[in-house]
């Protein structure tokens, strides 16, 4: 590199799970295909039902629609290409394709962190100020909060992706992952990346931990408010309104922390791939399931919507 002897990389090869036997890769393909279809169907149903049922036009379900839309986008960015690599259709991804995939991965990831914090704030207002909830969380406010949740993903994705792909790449073009994540792509760079790595660490901590602290503050206040409720039935009812969100937050942050904040000595590429599956593939599938099974309002809305659809169908001559 001192003399500038490097070749421009035109494409990358995603190694995915190529180290596994073909039979295991085929099994993974079928498993992830089912998960992918369930994710798309579940989140699409959440969006349609919360739009169609007037009982679900509250701020909580407005933010839930945003989360479902985000999860669909997250899956579309990662999973289709991964399925292709598992069947060895095409393990290559163009330079621009890799940069695009990384950009939207950062965008949706950053947006999800802040959207989960916004949903926690919504639950805080609903439980701690129930009488003022409709006034505080009016349509204008919830729209502003949604925009504020989505916006941080843009600068994070733009700066990190543009900076990383401005580096020269030389030698191997094999990305040891099932998608273009920053750490495995960064290993292919043949230049000093110290400043970028410092920025990436600080940026990741800010994007991940700032919403996490906001969520912790919201739930600390929620817990204090619930403990003041005299009856056990009242406490259970108050907790049930935020239990689904709390479970979703726990799944997302635990898997994210295990992937990006473990010591490097305990973080082999293969283990990181498995951990990455939890928040890129599994969690987006579980979110609509959690909100459907643990929320009576959503279950009742599904029932009303399907009965209405069947009734309309039966009326067609």
Automatic annotation (TrEMBL):
The chain crosses the membrane at residues 24-51, 63-83, 103-124, 145-165, 198-217, 238-262, 274-293. It is a multi-pass membrane protein. InterPro entries: GPCR_Rhodpsn, GPCR_Rhodpsn_7TM, Olfact_rcpt. Keywords: Cell membrane, G-protein coupled receptor, Membrane, Olfaction, Receptor, Sensory transduction, Transducer, Transmembrane, Transmembrane helix. Residues 42-291 form the G-protein coupled receptors family 1 profile domain. Putative odorant or sperm cell receptor. Belongs to the G-protein coupled receptor 1 family. This is Olfactory receptor. It comes from Canis lupus dingo. The lineage of its organism: Eukaryota, Metazoa, Chordata, Craniata, Vertebrata.
